Amino acid sequence: MREPDWKICSEEELWRYVAWHLEGEGIRSILVGGAVVAIYTKGLYRSGDLDMVPDDMGREGLERALAKIGFEPTSSRYFKHPECQHLFLEFPRGPVEIGEQYPVTPAEVSLEGRTIRLLSPTDSVKDRLAGYIHWKSRANFDQAVLICRSQQAHVDLEDVRKWCATEGGTEAFKELASRLGEEDGA
Predict the structure, then answer these.
(1) Among 35, 110, 120, 156, which is disulfide-ready with 47 (CB 3.0 to 4.6 Å)?
(2) 186 pLDDT exceeds 70?
(3) Which residues pair with 32 in a beta bridge?
(4) Strand locations in 35-167, DSSP E?
(5) Co-location of 101 and 15 in the same domain
(6) H or E stretch including 148?
(7) Structural domain that includes position 82
(8) pLDDT 10s digits, 67-81
(9) DSSP bridge partners of 88
(10) Are 110 and 142 in contact (CB under 8 A)?
(11) What are the C-alpha distances in Å from 80 to residues 75, 94, 129?
(12) H-helix or E-strand containing 13?
């Protein structure tokens, strides 16, 4: 796997490089959060960090694997590459959950003989709506709309509706559906 251009790489390029290398070291990870939004919206949204939830490899194994590709720890969860000033890595504890939804089955991407993982478009919409439902984050709602617009064929709105109902977010789903209807000219 070729190194990205550290000075200008996108969230997707950095994720592919890091996840591919971690997989080669026996560390499974799932990309979650804003970087997934950046990937699914083709850069319409920019995150600034990559939240990668690793399997239970332990801190030392993760540090060793990341050091092999030039990343240095800046705290207990954060890692930075000295040549990549615009993006950093964060490794929150797992397991991956979206509100009360567990387990979460990630989307898988085959890349040069390895499999790397990220939230599916549908689960990414739920993840962003969780921030809106529970913390009233309008930015998270807007990101959910962006994903729906960019990944229309890959977002299962019925699944999102059911999930919203279990999270106390029926009104959030109605707002989402209304917003998507307006944008479609309905």
Answers:
(1) 35
(2) no
(3) 51
(4) 49-54, 72-73, 78-80, 88-90, 107-111, 114-118
(5) yes
(6) helix 138-150
(7) 11-118
(8) 999 999 998 889 999
(9) 49
(10) no
(11) 10, 21, 29
(12) helix 11-24
**Domain end residue (candidates: 65, 90, 118):** 118
Mean pLDDT, all residues of the chain = 95
* DSSP three-state, residue 94: coil
* Closest listed residue to residue 39, CA positions, set 131, 145, 104, 120: 120
Identify the three-state secondary structure at position 87: coil
Residue written as tokens 């977002």?
Answer: 155
How many Å apart are CA 165 and CA 62, to the nearest integer? 37
Tokens linked to 41: 């919206």
Domains of the chain: total: 2
| Nearest residue to 112 via CA among 12, 36, 21 | 21
Digit-coded pLDDT (tens) for 88-134: 999 999 999 999 999 999 999 999 999 999 999 999 999 999 999 99
pLDDT value of position 58: 75
